[in-house]
């Protein structure tokens, strides 16, 4: 085996060991469920205070750094803002799949928020907020933003007071994008929580002929060719001879994690209120864009960014 390929394989295997350590609970990150602390840690082990954090710019990058940019002060509020929702997670029970990571709402934070915002401004006519925003659904500022993002909602639990607020937000023009959750158990939990807010509505699958796949980029591929896994699985999928060569799904979430889904709930006027990219980790495609050249070209460049641009552009113009 050539030396360069051997080194790449060693790095992939080492990264896999780190991922396994996270899944087994050996990684000191995410929330301390036993104490109920409001202090969480990012994947870079940086402290985030849930009671005070307001923007992505407050937290250090844990990937390869994030870009900075400015907008004309006269149009400072006339921008698209990446709004990450801070939510509670379900307590550990046998009914909930704990193949989900420790991180919860803080997954991929802050790199995915800032990288996607910067690239969106580069590629489209949309101007973007250079700081991003973090908020709870109970924050009165929620209604200042038409688009919100929830990561790893497979273990999300809405508090009773959040349910009517989310319903009001969605029925009055807001839209929620849920990303990075895998398998039937995680889907069932997310769908249950959303139906608490929208009991009269149902999810439908968006097929590849839907306009959302053909706005900024004309994505003429099968849906599974838009599937992005985490960085480790993505790197493994690119190593010829690896057992995971070509495997772009996170199979440890279960057999039903293989096929990517893009599902949506629309209102009576066919406006999308909730969109979910299930069995897909777009956030890693944005967050990890600079960590591996192969991962960037196959997943960030071809999948996560084009799909992200299309979804945001479509939602903001419909």
What can you tell me about this protein's structure?
It is a single chain. This protein has helices at 3-23, 111-123, 162-171, 183-197, 231-237, 282-287, 293-317, and strands at 30-31, 39-41, 47-49, 83-85, 88-89, 133-135, 147-151, 156-157, 175-179, 204-205, 261-266, 272-278. The strands form four sheets. The chain has a five-stranded mixed sheet with strand order 7-9-12-11-10. The protein has a three-stranded antiparallel sheet with strand order 1-2-3, with no helix packed on it. By secondary structure, it is of the alpha/beta class. A hairpin with a 5-residue loop joins strand 2 and strand 3.
Q: What is the average per-residue confidence, as pLDDT, rounded to a whole number?
A: 88
Q: N-to-C terminal Cα separation, in Å?
A: 52 Å
Total number of helices:
7
The major sheet is characterized as:
5 strands, mixed
Shape: globular
List the uncertain runs. 1-29
Number of strands: 12
Overall radius of gyration:
19 Å
| Helix-strand sequence | HEEEEEHEEEHEHEHEEHH
Helix content: 25-40%
- Which secondary-structure class do the elements indicate? alpha/beta
* Sheet with most strands: strand arrangement: 7-9-12-11-10
> In percent terms, what proportion of residues is strand?
5-15%
Brief account:
With 318 residues, the chain is α/β, with parallel strands linked by helices. 31% of the residues lie in helices and 14% in strands. Helix 1 (3-23) runs antiparallel to helix 5 (231-237).
Per-chain topology:
Blueprint: H1 3-23, E1 30-31, E2 39-41, E3 47-49, E4 83-85, E5 88-89, H2 111-123, E6 133-135, E7 147-151, E8 156-157, H3 162-171, E9 175-179, H4 183-197, E10 204-205, H5 231-237, E11 261-266, E12 272-278, H6 282-287, H7 293-317
Parallel strand pairs: 4-6, 7-9, 9-12
Antiparallel strand pairs: 1-2, 2-3, 5-8, 10-11, 11-12
Helix pairs in contact: 1-5
């Amino acid at each position: 085996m050539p030396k360069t390929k051997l080194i790449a394989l060693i790095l992939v295997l080492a990264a896999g060991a780190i991922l396994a350590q996270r899944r087994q609970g050996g990684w000191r990150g995410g929330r301390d469920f036993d104490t109920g602390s409001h202090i969480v840690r990012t994947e870079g082990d940086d402290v985030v205070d849930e009671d005070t954090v307001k923007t992505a710019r407050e937290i250090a990058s844990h990937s390869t750094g994030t870009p900075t940019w400015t907008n004309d002060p006269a149009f400072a509020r006339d921008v698209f803002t990446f709004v990450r929702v801070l939510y509670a997670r379900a307590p550990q029970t046998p009914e909930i799949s704990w193949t989900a990571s420790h991180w919860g709402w803080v997954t991929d934070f802050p790199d995915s928020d800032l990288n996607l915002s910067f690239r969106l401004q580069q590629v489209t006519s949309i101007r973007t907020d250079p700081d991003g925003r973090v908020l709870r659904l109970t924050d009165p500022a929620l209604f200042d933003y038409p688009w919100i993002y929830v990561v790893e909602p497979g273990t999300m639990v809405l508090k009773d007071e959040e349910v009517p607020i989310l319903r009001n937000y969605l029925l009055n023009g807001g839209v929620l994008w849920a990303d990075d959750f895998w398998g039937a158990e995680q889907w069932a939990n997310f769908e249950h929580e959303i139906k608490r807010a929208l009991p009269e509505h149902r999810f439908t699958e968006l097929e590849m002929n839907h306009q959302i796949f053909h706005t900024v980029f004309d994505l003429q591929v099968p849906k599974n060719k838009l599937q992005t896994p985490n960085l480790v699985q993505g790197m493994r999928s690119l190593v010829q001879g690896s057992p995971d060569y070509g495997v772009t799904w996170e199979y440890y979430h279960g057999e039903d994690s293989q096929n990517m889904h893009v599902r949506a709930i629309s209102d009576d006027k066919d406006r999308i209120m909730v969109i979910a990219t299930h069995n897909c980790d777009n956030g890693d495609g944005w967050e990890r864009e600079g960590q591996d050249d192969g991962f960037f070209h196959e997943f960030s460049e071809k999948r996560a960014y084009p799909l992200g641009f299309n979804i945001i552009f479509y939602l903001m113009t419909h």
